[in-house]
UniProtKB/TrEMBL annotation:
Top-level taxon of the source organism: Bacteria
Family: Belongs to the binding-protein-dependent transport system permease family.
Keywords: Cell membrane, Membrane, Transmembrane, Transmembrane helix, Transport
Domain ABC transmembrane type-1 span(s) in chain numbering: 93-303
Example GO BP: transmembrane transport
The keyword ATP-binding is annotated on this UniProt entry: no
Membrane topology field: Multi-pass membrane protein
Predominant location category: membrane
SUPFAM superfamilies attached to this UniProt entry: MetI-like
Protein name: N-Acetyl-D-glucosamine ABC transport system, permease protein
């Protein structure tokens, strides 16, 4: 009989061989993903660097120079900041910004009340939503013109309601409050939209459970609705405070900082010094001060938000 040859069984690949074979593939896949992420992020990073970071650093650099926008800049150190701190207009603008900040905080509660009213299914609610939403789509120039006509002491609606003319925009005592009242109209609509969006993500099961336990009215709002709207409330207050600090368009349209610079704020003061008086370095110092105030607040709120999340 012929001798039988033993069957040859193929050698099984060892786990180390499989791992060695899989590593290059995983690495190539990860590297491709990293390259794709870099290419997707590159345009946004480039635009942020050119249009956000570079202007910020250049403004800080320019604040140490005396420059009219045409001649060669002259380095003067902290002289712009010293002059700014001693300027009466700067203190008026800072006080007006504080007034804007305090009164503008009425917008989030008013927006929440409007959102709670509109977040119901009744006949004609879509038309009412459109009327509440209208101020948000109007530009600041249009809002400023509307309220300028409203305040006009000769033919304005306020004159018809009071029976006599009140020069709201011509009196240093009233002008800032009149402009803030006009700015609250679109800002309340914006906060209303934020809260309406937040109300759509509320857990309905928690609301039903609270109703079964007898919660309603203020207790329902405080213990069930508002805790679920924490992130929305945070965003509404942050956007409102930033809007109050950078207020410019309504002041430019309604009063131009007057009368006697009584309604100017830091943002308009920056524009006034740069465009009217060609003081680019001094204007940059005011802008840096305003940026520092906003940055301090934003960092504080972000740290608070991160601490709450932890």
């Amino acid at each position: 009989m012929p001798a039988q040859t033993p069957a040859i069984t193929p050698a099984r690949p060892q786990p180390s061989d499989l791992a060695a074979a899989g590593k290059p593939r995983r690495r190539s896949t990860a590297s491709r993903r990293n390259r794709a992420a870099i290419w997707f992020l590159a345009p946004a990073c480039l635009m942020t660097a050119v249009y956000v970071l570079y202007p910020i650093f250049y403004t800080i650099y320019l604040s140490f120079f005396n420059w009219d926008g045409m001649m060669k800049p002259e380095f003067i150190g902290l002289a712009n900041y010293v002059e700014m701190l001693h300027a009466p207009t700067f203190h008026v603008a800072l006080k007006n910004n504080l007034t804007w900040l305090l009164l503008f905080l009425l917008a989030p509660p008013a927006g929440l009340i409007a959102a709670l009213y509109l977040n119901q299914k009744v006949r004609g609610i879509r038309l009412i939503k459109a009327l509440f939403f209208a101020p948000f789509v109007l530009s600041g120039v249009v809002v400023g013109l509307i309220f300028s006509w409203f305040y006009d002491p000769t033919f304005g609606l306020l004159t018809l309601l009071l029976g006599h003319g009140v020069p709201v925009l011509g009196d240093p005592r009233y002008v800032t409050f009149g402009i803030i009242f006009a700015a609250l109209w679109p800002q309340t609509a914006y906060c209303m939209i934020l809260f309406l969006t937040g109300l759509t993500s509320i857990n309905a099961d928690q609301v039903e459970a609270a109703r079964m336990e007898g919660a309603k009215g203020w207790s329902m709002l405080r213990y069930v609705i508002l805790p679920q709207l924490r992130s929305t409330t945070f965003m509404a207050f942050v956007v409102t405070i930033i809007g109050a600090l950078r207020s410019f368009d309504l002041i430019s349209v309604m009063s131009s900082g007057g009368p006697f610079e009584s309604s100017t704020v830091l943002a308009y003061y920056t524009y006034d010094q740069a465009i009217k008086y060609y003081r680019q370095g001094y204007s940059a110092a005011i802008a840096v001060t305003l940026f520092a105030i906003m940055l301090i607040y934003i960092v504080y709120q972000l740290r608070r938000l991160l601490r709450d999340e932890r």
